Amino acid sequence: MQLELCVPKDKYDVAAVRRASSVGFPALNPVFPELLEWLQDYNWPVARHVSSLLATAGPEVAPHIDDALNSDDAIWKFWIIENLAGKLRPTLWQKLYPTIQRIAEHPTAAEIEEEVHLAAKAALESRHKG
What is d(CA 72, CA 79) in angstroms, rounded to the nearest whole number? Predict the structure, then answer.
């Protein structure tokens, strides 16, 4: 299957995510950045489906998530931490831990304004308990 058919074309394109799920990881690794972009607004109908799919990815996608968590888009960071981080496999979580900890302990002004640091603290506490 052509991987571009596995990337949503709009916020309602759940069929693309279904195709992506049938392909799975690591085959989807080349389009991981494009899939991750669909978490920029969790109000989009496709976002929940993409989040569930991305939670099945392996540790090789950590740099892409880390790039997003180090971007200037505080709202995107919030949605990633709030809706994806808790679902990640332990090996992937460990790779992202330093960035999430930095957000929790030393947030930027934008991260404070969008409450990303609170989401990061909650994610760290949740993982610590689990």
Answer: 13
